[in-house]
């Protein structure tokens, strides 16, 4: 009896935290505890880094993998992402900032920078992506919690976009192309690309705001 | 451009996807402190985060966390803060499963142990340690306080490498300048001090780290002592949990 009970306990211990942790991971991009987490990172609490990774590691890795399409590179860049956050967290406003938004932006920009540097596609005058994830940008109040429900609705809205709308969104978010670069690549007038992008963003923005799309 | 026109560009602005002139115009406008646009920018960051989170979900390899922590000179200490409640629940569940819930009348006690863990779960390290205790087959459990009228109640767990875990509830106040002290009493031997601890309300979780042989331990006890602790227990004994009976 004792052995059985112990086995059962161990099994439950193995399964339960995993399931719950995954739930926690997926529930929101901005946790109630993010402010506290940011402060602990600023206090150089190494355990806070483990917590940060538990919250955002999977999302950052998935995003980077989407951009670079290679798992070994995605690992390297995920490590760089968290190191970068660790090194720059002092400029982050813990009270107002959106930690998850910042981590994902760092991840995205590291990945796009990497792709750009390896393909040599770094045109003159292009904005350095490393300036885009300055923590100060993410220290604005009003960035919102994203529940799993909202993200789900966003995903279904994204899937309803026209192919052209989806394409320009993917180019902007995962390839880091400017609108004129997209126009060139798609052989479309800049005005057309701008229209696609604007309408796509309008739909996604409204979906997140909970506004019915007319 | 008007604020309305500008605000439609903030997502692209934050992505670095605008041309230099548009970017410059936005930066100049934001620098003037337009509150409408500041709010719209915050919203754009939310939109961007949402869209970036739509990337197909792939679990990273397990070793990646160690790598990340290694990069900042830390090591993986196991559980993240976000797990605390999950951990508390897991520990409570383990307590329940462990004890087998053989008799109905135990339910109240188990609820009590569970409450205790949740109440004092503020310290992840203790919870993690408690979980380790409860998940290891070498752990030897004991309970105390049953059958008395209003006694401290709870459980003691002993482990050959990890030491002693005490979960107690219904503790009387230690009083001003006093503290609780745990004692490990070997069979036929004198009580050995096993650490000072405080209660949170009437509940406490205390761990004594270090190897011991549960088979040689006769009892785990708790007394109230002066704040600096004592070398020998002061009567009366608050908790007496016989081990290995
Ligand atoms: Zn404005």
What is the topology?
The complex is a heterodimer of chains A (214) and B (245).
Chain A: H1 2-27, H2 34-42, H3 46-68, H4 71-88, H5 99-119, H6 148-159, H7 163-174, H8 179-186, H9 190-209
Helix pairs in contact in A: 2-3, 3-4, 3-5, 4-5, 6-9, 7-9, 8-9
Chain B: H1 3-7, H2 10-15, H3 20-31, H4 35-52, H5 63-71, H6 84-98, H7 106-119, H8 124-135, E1 140-144, E2 153-159, E3 163-169, E4 178-186, E5 192-197, E6 204-209, E7 217-226, E8 239-242
Antiparallel strand pairs in B: 1-2, 2-3, 3-6, 4-5, 4-7, 7-8
The structure holds zinc ion.
Q: Which descriptors apply to this entry?
A:
heterodimer, A: 214 residues, mainly alpha, Rna Polymerase Sigma Factor, Chain: A, Arc Repressor Mutant, subunit A, 3 domains, disordered N terminus, B: 245 residues, alpha+beta, Immunoglobulin-like, four-stranded antiparallel beta sheet, binds zinc ion
TL;DR?
The complex is a heterodimer of chains A (214) and B (245). Chain A has 214 residues and is mostly helical. Chain A is built from nine helices and no strands.
- Helical content of chain B stands at 25-40%
* Number of alpha- plus pi-helical segments of chain B: 8
| Main CATH class of the largest domain in chain B | Mainly Beta
- The CATH homologous superfamily of the largest domain in chain A is named RNA polymerase sigma factor, region 2, helix turn helix motif
Shape of chain B: elongated
Helical run tally of chain A: 9
Write down the CATH topology of the largest domain in chain B: Immunoglobulin-like
The proportion of residues forming helix of chain A, as a percent range, comes to: 55-70%
Strand coverage percent of chain B: 15-25%
Number of E-type strands of chain B: 8
């Amino acid at each position: 009896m004792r052995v059985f009970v112990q086995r059962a306990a161990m099994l439950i211990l193995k399964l339960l935290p995993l399931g719950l942790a995954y739930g926690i991971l997926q529930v929101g991009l901005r946790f109630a505890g993010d402010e506290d987490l940011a402060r602990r990172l600023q206090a150089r609490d190494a355990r806070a880094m483990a917590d940060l990774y538990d919250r955002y590691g999977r999302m950052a890795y998935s995003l980077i993998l989407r951009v670079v399409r290679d798992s070994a590179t995605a690992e390297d860049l995920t490590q760089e992402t968290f190191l970068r956050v660790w090194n720059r967290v002092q400029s982050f406003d813990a009270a107002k900032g959106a930690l998850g938004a910042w981590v994902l932006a760092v991840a995205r920009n590291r990945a796009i920078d990497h792709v750009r540097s390896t393909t040599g596609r770094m045109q003159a005058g292009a904005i350095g992506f490393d300036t885009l994830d300055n923590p100060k940008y993410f220290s604005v109040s009003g960035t919102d919690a994203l529940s799993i429900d909202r993200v789900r609705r966003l995903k279904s809205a994204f899937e309803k976009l026209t192919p052209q709308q989806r394409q320009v969104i993917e180019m902007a978010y995962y390839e880091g192309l400017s609108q004129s670069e997209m126009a060139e690549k798609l052989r479309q007038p800049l005005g057309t690309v701008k229209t696609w992008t604007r309408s796509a963003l309008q739909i996604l923005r409204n979906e997140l705001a909970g506004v019915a799309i007319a | 451009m008007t604020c309305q026109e500008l605000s439609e560009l903030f997502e692209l602005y934050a992505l670095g996807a605008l041309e230099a002139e548009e970017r410059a115009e936005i930066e100049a406008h934001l620098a003037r402190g337009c509150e409408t646009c500041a709010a719209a920018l915050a919203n754009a960051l939310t939109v961007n985060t949402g869209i970036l989170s739509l990337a197909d979900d792939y679990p990273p390899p397990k070793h990646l966390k160690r790598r990340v922590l290694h990069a900042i000179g830390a090591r993986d200490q196991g559980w993240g803060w976000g797990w605390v409640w999950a951990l508390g629940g897991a520990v409570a569940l383990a307590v329940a499963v462990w004890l087998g819930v053989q008799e109905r009348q135990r339910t109240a006690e188990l609820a009590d142990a569970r409450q205790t863990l949740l109440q004092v779960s503020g310290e992840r390290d203790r919870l993690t340690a408690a979980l380790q205790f409860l998940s290891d087959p070498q752990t030897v459990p004991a309970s105390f306080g049953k059958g008395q009228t209003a006694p401290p109640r709870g459980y003691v767990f002993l482990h050959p490498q990890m030491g002693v875990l005490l979960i107690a509830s219904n503790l009387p106040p230690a009083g001003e300048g006093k503290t609780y002290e745990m004692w490990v009493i070997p069979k036929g031997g004198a009580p050995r001090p096993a650490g000072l601890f405080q209660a949170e309300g009437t509940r406490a979780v205390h761990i004594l780290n270090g190897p011991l042989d549960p088979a040689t331990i006769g009892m785990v006890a708790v007394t109230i002592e002066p704040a600096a602790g004592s070398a020998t227990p002061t009567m009366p004994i608050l908790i007496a949990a016989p081990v290995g009976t």
